[in-house]
Write the structure tokens for this entry.
Amino acid sequence: MENGSVNDPSRSPSKPDGLARLVRPVARLRTPFAEKFGVPRQSGLVAEAEGRVEFLPEFAAPEFTRGLEGFSHIWLLTGFHENPIWTSGATVRPPRLGGNERLGVFASRAPNRPNGLGLSLVHVLELGPGFIRVAGVDAVDGTPIYDVKPYLPWVEAHPDATTGWAGGAPFVRQPEAVILPEEYALVMGDVTAVLVKRILQLDVQPAYHDDPDRTYGMTVAGWNVRWRTGPDSTLVVYEVTPRETPK
Amino acid sequence: MENGSVNDPSRSPSKPDGLARLVRPVARLRTPFAEKFGVPRQSGLVAEAEGRVEFLPEFAAPEFTRGLEGFSHIWLLTGFHENPIWTSGATVRPPRLGGNERLGVFASRAPNRPNGLGLSLVHVLELGPGFIRVAGVDAVDGTPIYDVKPYLPWVEAHPDATTGWAGGAPFVRQPEAVILPEEYALVMGDVTAVLVKRILQLDVQPAYHDDPDRTYGMTVAGWNVRWRTGPDSTLVVYEVTPRETPK
């Protein structure tokens, strides 16, 4: 690694240089989300979204996580592996602003960004040999993890930080605004039914899709779930089918 | 990027695969720290440690940071570029534990880790064209930055998170426990003198170095500063000289 090589303004960051870095997964994250649609837009928003950090064989020895006992939260540095390689878009259109206002990619948490690296803060549920069971995931199943770091609240907890355009916590619907008929809950089981309800309480569909006749679908925990907008801004689940097993 | 390629337990993460990723700097961080010794061990610990995120030409257009106004804090995803490439050490010896207890690399924030990626939370002082002036840096001058993300307190502020072996905030000496003779403060200027005092208030020297005759040195903001342990656990600066300009 050569320091100072970025000093030359004529160099292009598109070409590898001494400060470029090839990162390789140390683990992958198993989650209930088979596809991007329906994934919570930040970590921690859906506590019921459980995941599993599965270390690759080279990093699976218990020594690698020795001392992680007693930490309630960990960082996952992830890759947005299902997003296209970033090309040159300086701006993005965050769904929170209705999808029609452009903001700088470095002023947003959009997945389509230079280097495609994500940052998720998750709650530790269980530390096992070669794995960590976590809650509050916000990533597609199979997401590569490039690093795991303990969370340090005296450094990283700033409840009074200001957030410009992002405002405060995202809008969450009242539980009764999501209508999941009991027959579907029975089919999916209580745990998955609660997870589906929590996801739909968040503003999962784009804000500019307010067409009441439009239907939506997502795949969660092995179930294809379809819903539409009902009266009084409710969301009504109208179909639940087992996901056809891939491969 | 091919999903599922980590599924094969026989693959080695030392070989690039579909989930490996070449990351390139989008910016570099200018800091007062010419060398690793003396760098605060976490971001935010020394508010007086100011830095400057200087975007590379490809990312310097104001569009890239449009909307960052109003955010008090940002994340920097950095590279520990002065650390050797990680080889195979599953454990590290954190300085906070006196350097003689081994903990898993994923249970620590040690710089010598797989993929060598760092995470710093810094305070935004000024947003300018092609740069961001920040406070609370914890990195060597010239550190590559692979991503800049806004801080979201409703997701990332967990003041009550538990921290296992790391306990609470690090030990900080009383201001009067650092003796910086007025003659040196005059030479360096007030701003640098305060920065040097703040750094020395932190436990900058390894805990297992308690030899009162031993001397230490660091280079901060263009000054070589030398100190030793004095009576009553004080630290006494005994030499301040301008750093010879490199190159």
Q: What stands out?
A: Residues 1-16 of chain B have pLDDT under 50 and may be disordered. Helices of chain B lie at 153-156, 182-188, 190-201. Chain B touches chain A through 88 residues (CB under 8 Å).
